[in-house]
Amino acid sequence: MINTNLKFCRRELALTQAQMAEKLGIKRSLVGAYEEGRAEPRLATLVNMARLFGITLDQLVTTDFSKKKNTKIIGSLPASDPAAADADDNTDPPPTPAAGGKLRVLAFTVDRDQNENIELVPQKAAAGYLNGYADREYLEVLPKFRLPMLTQTGTYRAFEIAGDSMLPIASGTVIVGRYVEEWTSIKDGTPCIVVSSRDGIVFKRVFNKLRSGAMFVLHSDNPNFSPYDINADDVLEIWEAKSYISSTFPIAELSLERVASLVLDLQQQVALLKKA
Q1: 253 domain residue, yes or no
Q2: Do 88 and 120 sit in the same domain of this protein?
């Protein structure tokens, strides 16, 4: 199982065995031996691999990702210390992941025509999503739909938001987001659904501080809510908001001039009725 998962991840990232070895901080011969089943990684190495891939140790050992049709491995492995490639076979130093750079598992579902669905995560399923976001079997039980106006490139998911931190987007609105593979590409002020182990599912404007501080700053549109920082290591997924579905129409803001004009119109209509 471990050998097939290593080979699957390497091919998904279009890496050679030498490149994979360099990024894992081990010798190329070890990668080949692991993939061919001629050797088994030590427990410490397995733990480092699981952390690097962004999956649990149980998934690495028991889940054959090559047999999961609707599974993608997203991201790129961080570079390790170049000197590590020349280290002794029995010395596997733990990798040092760059923020947002570890492998992430993206599960999704498809319809009968093999088109990707948009899975809906309602508020009541928010807590469960934190445990099942990478499990296709969990996603299978969520409501699904498609929006033909969205571009065909990318994977989309819908989240029902709660609270009034992003007014005039009201609580209960469904935000449709496109999966962000490369976090460093997020531009400051981009509205996103951020899924994290710390805060769960939140809808905020994201300010990218990965290069300077390995974190994001999350802002609300409602000025009553203060911005706050979140470490990149706590973030599980980011979905850039592309559309929203709401049963509540935004209320237009009326200027003083507009209010005065409406009052004048009413006065004129009352005057005409009195003459009649």
Answers
A1: no
A2: no
The whole domain housing 194 covers 108-245
CA separation (Å) from 168 to 162, 173, 239, 243, 264?
13, 10, 20, 14, 29
Q: Put residue 66 in one of left, alpha, beta given phi > 0 → left and psi -120 to 50 → alpha.
A: alpha
Could you give the number of structural domains in the chain?
2
CA distance 72 to 125: 23
Interatomic CA distance for residues 95 and 240, integer angstroms = 29
Q: How do the pLDDT tens digits run along the chain, 276 residues long?
A: 788 888 887 777 677 888 777 777 778 888 788 888 888 877 767 776 777 676 677 777 888 877 766 666 554 434 333 333 333 333 333 333 334 455 567 788 888 887 889 999 999 999 999 988 878 788 989 999 989 888 777 899 999 999 999 998 999 999 999 999 889 999 999 999 999 999 999 999 999 999 888 999 999 999 999 999 999 999 999 999 999 999 887 666 667 777 777 788 888 888 888 786
Residue 276 covered by a domain: no
Structural contact between residues 98 and 78, judged by C-beta atoms closer than 8 angstroms: yes
Contacts of 25 (CB under 8 A, 6+ apart): 80, 81, 84, 85, 87, 92, 93, 94, 95
- The pTM (predicted TM-score) of the whole model is 0.63
Has residue 124 been placed in a domain? yes
**Domain CATH code at residue 37:** 1.10.260.40
> Looking at this protein, which amino acid is placed at residue 265?
D
Instruction: Looking at the structure, tell me whether residues 8 and 59 fall in a common domain.
Output: yes
